[in-house]
Amino acid sequence: xxxxxxxxxxxxxxxxxxxxxxxxxxxxxxxxxxxxxxxxxxxxxxxxxxxxxxxxxxxxxxxxxxxxxxxxxxxxxxxxxxxxxxxxxxxxxxxxxxxxxxxxxxxxxxxxxxxxxxxxxxxxxxxxxxxxxxxxxx
Length: 138
Fold this sequence. Notes:
- This protein has helices spanning 53-58, 60-67, 100-110, 127-137; strands at residues 3-10, 13-20, 34-41, 76-84, 87-94, 115-122.
- By secondary structure, the chain is of the alpha+beta class.
- A six-stranded antiparallel β-sheet has the order 1-2-4-5-3-6, covered by helices on one side.
- The radius of gyration is 15 Å and the shape is globular.
């Protein structure tokens, strides 16, 4: 999958954003109506909140796994990855009936050394994407 990125500054700290290069992400809006986030608490960060380079490289398998977590034709799509303040958030839109807890269990089983938290809610209007990340999708 091809990715686009944006590196910027927020509250005097670096904010790194990555998004998949979908031809038209909005075609998924009627199918995937719940926003879902996995927050990875980074263990080794610099003073600016970004991961240390060697540690970041060690996360490549984990990162790839989370990027491919859901079947985009059936369960959900990843829409954004943000790295800021010692955390990396993986943002998805999923179907309301997608049992994300199974995926969380698989992540925690495969990567027990990585501390994650999850969050989900209904967002059929895609307000998260429209208010936060729409500039990336214009």
